[in-house]
Amino acid sequence: MPFKMLIVDDEPIICRGLQQTIPWDEYMVEVVDLAYDGAEAIQKIQEHGDIDLVLTDVRMPNVDGLRLAAFLAENYSDIRMIIISGYDDFKYAQQAIQLGVKDYLLKPVEVDELLQVITKITSTLQEERKAAQQIYQMNLQNAIFHQVLDLPDTAPNHSGLFADVRIYPFVTMLKEYKNKTKDLSEEELQNVAVDWENQVEKLLNSQGFSCVSVFTSKNVLLTCVTNHLSDFTPRNLDFQELNCVVNDTDITIGQLNEVYLRLYEDTRYIPFSEDGVVVSPVSESLANKSKANDWLMDRAEQYIKTYYASPIKAHEVADVINISPNYFSSLFKQKTGKSFNEYINTLRVDTAKQLLEETPFNVNEIAEKVGYREYKYFVDVFKKFTGYTPTKYRNVRANNIN
């Protein structure tokens, strides 16, 4: 972003010459206006409100360059001032220095000399702007963290100062998180988190957005867009391996705690969205779709618990509740956290454990009662779930009871 400069001189030809003959854009400077005396300069500084540099003559009617410098020192101390004077008078230079003016050039000014001064000033301004942005971003991050994390009372808290700052929040979740991370070390999990956060930030930055992100749990990353909010369109973001729940509008940081809880709650609708993106609050149609699917899964579980001891198959249950086998498998995994076969085997092994503990049936009989037609397969499944063969399990439980 270029630095904005006002040129002030009581000779219009000099003002226009300085404005038009120097390629200011090559030096990250934009001449935003001209003024022909100090009084007009003050008026235009107040109108613009974001002037970075003032290049001014000393001798001017109404308000001269030194009185302009005094006004800036008192009211706009962040504005850098360069004085150009046709008077080689130490008193002028001395007064200017006392007013905080660091650059005092004599007419006629060499363009190269002026540009050296401009380059030095813009470099300093750039460093100051960068430092100020870093401090602002840290304090903004702190305010967001205090809204969604349980931080100790001793932690610095800038929430009050940023309560009215507007942000655009959304949460992302890694698709198939459990399967992708179940065998990873802590270091590898940390690398996944870093790559994930970088992916979100890089995509936003590529479209001109800044953001603050924080993991609120291992598989939930809250991201708050902090600039150009009116241009932010979540549907245009392609997170590929991530599911996303976005708020339907920007909010203030003071509202974040309440809105974040709703975003987190609405992650349950992700399986029912077409593209893995849910807009919160969810539409009535999506909410109704979710309720309908919950009802279907309740029917499926009831049917399975009734007929688990028979050679039941996933497509059979899908037929009963009148949906496709693939859609059934997806919904069932989302609802129970298990595949159909895992769920059936868990149900059968739990029943088998009860029968081994409470009845005199032999292992072959128990295998048939819980739905296994092959004795060896039953023993393998039982051992996988419990760590024991059925006979060993019965003996261990009997010894424990005795």
From TrEMBL:
Q: InterPro entries, from UniProt?
A: CheY-like_superfamily, Homeodomain-like_sf, HptR, HTH_AraC, HTH_AraC-typ_CS, Sig_transdc_resp-reg_receiver, Tscrpt_reg_AraC-type_HTH
Q: Which residues carry this modification: 4-aspartylphosphate?
A: 57
**Glycoprotein recorded as keyword:** no
The protein's matches in SMART domains, at most eight in alphabetical order, are given as: HTH_ARAC, REC
Q: Which Pfam families match?
A: HTH_18, Response_reg
Q: Name one GO molecular function term.
A: sequence-specific DNA binding
What keywords tag this UniProt record? Cytoplasm, DNA-binding, Phosphoprotein, Transcription, Transcription regulation, Two-component regulatory system
Chain ranges of the Response regulatory domain: 4-122
Give start and end of each HTH araC/xylS-type domain.
Answer: 298-396
Which Gene Ontology cellular-component terms appear in the entry?
A: cytoplasm
Main localization (coarse) = cytoplasm
Please give the superkingdom of this protein's source: Bacteria
- What protein does this entry describe? Two-component system response regulator YesN
Organism, scientific name: Neobacillus niacini
The upper taxonomy is: Bacteria, Bacillati, Bacillota, Bacilli, Bacillales
